[in-house]
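Appendix B. One record, verbatim.
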Amino acid sequence: PDVIPKYAPDAIIGKVGTGAPAPAAAAAGGAAAPLLDKAGSKTRDWARSEKNRKVRMEGEGKIPGWIGALCYMVLGFMKEIL
């Protein structure tokens, strides 16, 4: 209820000014025209990314075994703390 006067006592509430009217939009191509021209854009190929993710998830990290698991767990905790 009294949030605005409490936290922003200098805030201007309401209509600030009249300003200039917005210019009319130029009619370019009608409603059927695409909004953004994507003529020269490349499509992304995610096959390599998916292959790399599969290899990563099937193997171990750079430190193998339970010692590696312990190291990665400690590193994960440290990343969360810092």
